[in-house]
Amino acid sequence: MQILDNFFHLKKSKTSIKQEFIAALTTFVSLSYILFANPNILHDAGIDKGAAFTVTAIATAIGCFLMGIIANYPIALAPTLGSGAFFAYNVCIGMKIPWATALAAVLLASILFILITILKLREMVVDAIPQDLKYAISSGIGLFIAFIGLQSSKLIVNSNSTLVKLGSFTNPDTWVSMFGIILTVILVASRIPGSIFIGMLLTALFGIIIRQIPLPNSIVSSAPSIAPTFGKAILELKNINTTQLFMVVITFLLVTFFDTAGTLIGMTQQAGMVDKQGKIPRIGKAFLSDSLAMVEGAILGTAPLGTSVESSAGIAMGGRTGLTSILVGFLFIISLVFSPLLTVIPSTVTSPALIIVGVLMAANLKNIHWHEFEIAFPAFLIVIGMPLTYSISDGLALGMIAYPITMIAAKRYKEIPKMMYILLIIFVAFFIITNL
Fold this sequence. Notes:
By secondary structure, the chain is mainly α. The chain is built from 19 helices and 4 strands.
């Protein structure tokens, strides 16, 4: 136990092995849907679904180990649905690029990612972002997470006329979510230790009782082989030789860059890791971790890995060190054998946790200087942009473009870091590239 304390600095971080384990369980339960969602998306691109399941679990586990050991952050790295959807539907289906060649594009983008990380360009970008906008990023991710939770709970559904609307209370899935939300709110408000995780367990039990969550047919099963995808990205690197494919590489690089930067800022703000000057300790090591995770994910055979927003659920339960991440990784390894049990954890069970965590992260709104319009406007664009565009990177881009403009208009151009002008150009280019 002393070895763990010395390596992860548990006492200094005001946490314990028990607290880190509960946080890891919470993050894993919140993130476990990726084991089924990611293979379904990759299968649409032509990848074998069984191989994609195993790759998703192994790639996520390795990513978590990297983040925990290198950066000592309580943050999980996993394939993201946004990058997975871009990979499958835009690149493979839309551009008719074979999935193996698309994986090679991801691998090349990952290598470039490592290069700009070593050159500390990513650290320079994060350090240049004003503190008010960092608070906006954290709060915006909170609203985004809550919106995802409301959708997963079926409380918010699609509408052809108004885009979204209130869901139907005749839907039994909504009953499960409502039970979970009310129960978890009561537990959190009552200051019950482990409230979010307890809420998920009791919500799953309630769903089983009312027969909305089926019991698994078995407990254990063997993991499918990764042979269909392993190493295919390396073999296909030679085929990245057209302008179209180079644009795909740049797009993967830009989307992952800004998604990860925004999410890391939000997670570290939530965990209280940011110092008084707004600096994030070990941010370079965190960036190196996710860069390496992208490489191993591409070699194994999955879309880009990134910082998981579901990590916020574990952070809310007290996760403060890399021990949380490593335990999440081990849980994903174990899930390869006990995958049938994961069918009892649908999104209706995890959605209450995401909504509660969204509320907790939105607390940073109070730290933004709303009375200064030149700051309030770009901050507002970030906060509202993330849930409305359904993208952390797009919401971040809106605010980053607006900030230099409003500050110059307010004659406060001397306060603008030089990097923000560079980011203005980069984000404009980002919008042009990603929307062509």
